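Appendix B, Record 12. Input sequence as logged:
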Amino acid sequence: MEAGDPDLVIWQLGTNDILRDRPMDDFFADFRRGEAILDRAGVDVLLIDPQRLPEGTTNPSFRGRNPALGDMARLIDLEGGRLGYAVLHRFDAMGGWSGLERGGVGPDDLHLNDPGYACWAAVTAEGLAAALR
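Logged structural output:
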């Protein structure tokens, strides 16, 4: 890898692919290219699946996208298992964030707000700690 010599790569993927209606063949082609780079580098990998969007979103581009995001999360989980990558199940975790302000999502209905980032960081740290044992 050109940018240093990392031991771990945290790879967040899937959300923009779904929101941009990218064909799955294109997603998997990109994924395979990334996999080849990571394998050559010999690094550990943590995949982070898509985020959940607020069910009550007013953004017409986001309405009804959670089923496709959930499907993408399941595909990422399968691919991660196949490759031996750790997978952070953000999509499922965000389903339990109903007690957070706006479900942890900011006013644009896409990017996390401060409570959402705090939960995301805690879930990530817990997942990494479990993977390192």
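Helices lie at 15-19, 24-41, 66-83, 90-94, 114-132.
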